[in-house]
Amino acid sequence: MFKRMLKKIIPRSVLLFYHKVLAVAANVAYWFPSHRMVIVGVTGTKGKSTTVLMITRILEEAGYTVGSTNTIFFNDGKKEWPNVLKQGMPGRFYLQKLLRRMVRHGCTHAVIEVTSEGILQHRQWGVAFDVAVFTNLSPEHIGSHGSYESYRSAKAHIFRSLDQSRRKRFNGLPVKKAIIVNNDEKDAQHFSRHRSDELWLVNERCGSHAPDGAARAVCAEDMDDTSDGVAFTYDDHYIQLALHGTFMAMNALLAIAATRSLGVSTSTAEQALEAIEKIPGRVEYVTCGQKFTVIVDYAHEPRSFKKIMALGRELAGEHNLVVVFGATGGGRDAKKRPEMGRIAAEKANVVILTTDDPYDDDPGDLIGDIAVGVLGAGERTKEGKTFFKIVDRKKAIQSALSGAAPGDVVLVLGKGSEQTMVLRDGKTVPWNDVAVIKQLLKA
């Protein structure tokens, strides 16, 4: 609360200068550690953590010692632990200290999730990126940036500055500056137009938005989302992921392109990707012998909602699709809440609204914002029959599980792999959706 009040009082220019001074100090204090590793930065609205994890696993399969920072976990080259900071990109001193530990532990590569909020606060300052990856873009954090254009511009920062960042050598050879872009995105050109040694344009399916000029093309053939996971063919390699959803295939293609730019073979990428059994909190199946499907996912904005709800509807078929979710408070984008409610109501048979991370907001008010969209979706949505408001998240999940029949699909959305819930005045309490679901299923 106090920090939010200060932000309203102190001029924005002063705050930004303060953040930059901290960034410079952090780099100096830890001797610019990014200069001693090959650095891959991944940015976008959705799919950042998954793509970071995939790139990390591929580089590890190639025999490199790899550090990683993302929303799901941190890895300093010796150990990996859950990210409990609720930040995809940690603060300046935390990030530089972690990069220094990676150098000390012999990491040759580091894969970093880059957020627009982090760029706004200069957390990327001094980090010498070698590969910049763009996943996708949709309206998010507009309140912090002022407009969609400013949000997009922040995301593109590491692409604009890539060619001017420090040049490095690895194994006696110069490291190329490479840009990797999801070419299916309408904003792709805003990221691909910047100068680099190599440009890789990635399409979910071959034949769409073919690249021009000298750009390298990556696309999938014969994509199919089966009961075992999504499968596709690339470069004469049939790749079977244990992960569901065609959006997972796009993340995999971006990871393949990024590591190909670093000289890693498709065969190595295939072996690493097929070995990934799950990604915590990202389309994560929770199984304790029940006869219905339970999936936990981090989806918390309209675009990701559409994708996970479509997958849930497909998996449920003629059975019921039940969805449990809430909305984050603390000044986060309020406009998306009714839209998420509408999407859920259109796809699901039962919608249960609950608490996410309320921060200083009243959970009931947050639920009310979403309910506007749910109730506006049509006559099939009736409170007390197909639509429920249960503030206590554990009770909401319990209601969904106890009402599920064989063949039904239950989606628990919004928090993914997070380990805490944030309440008023910044108070945090332990919380993990998967752990709670397992506890309830076993009981």
| Class from helix and strand fractions | alpha/beta
Number of domains: 2
Cα distance, first to last residue? 38 Å
Oligomer: single chain
Q: Strand order of the main beta sheet, please?
A: 4-3-2-5-1-6-9-10-11
Number of helices, where a helix is a run of at least 4 consecutive DSSP H or I residues: 16
Which fold does the CATH topology of the largest domain refer to?
A: UDP-N-acetylmuramoyl-L-alanine:D-glutamate ligase
Question: Beta-strand level of the residues, as a percent range?
Answer: 15-25%
CATH class of the largest domain: Alpha Beta
What would you report as the Rg, rounded to the nearest angstrom?
A: 22 Å
Low-confidence stretches: none
Structure at a glance:
This protein has 443 residues and is of the alpha/beta class. It has helices spanning 2-9, 12-29, 48-61, 92-104, 116-120, 142-145, 148-155, 157-160, 188-192, 246-261, 266-274, 302-316, 336-347, 363-375, 393-403, 433-442; strands at residues 38-43, 66-69, 73-75, 80-82, 109-113, 131-134, 169-170, 173-174, 178-182, 198-203, 216-219, 221-226, 229-234, 237-240, 284-285, 293-297, 321-325, 350-353, 387-389, 409-413, 420-422, 428-430. α3 crosses α11, α12 runs parallel beside α13 (336-347) and α15 crosses α16 (433-442).
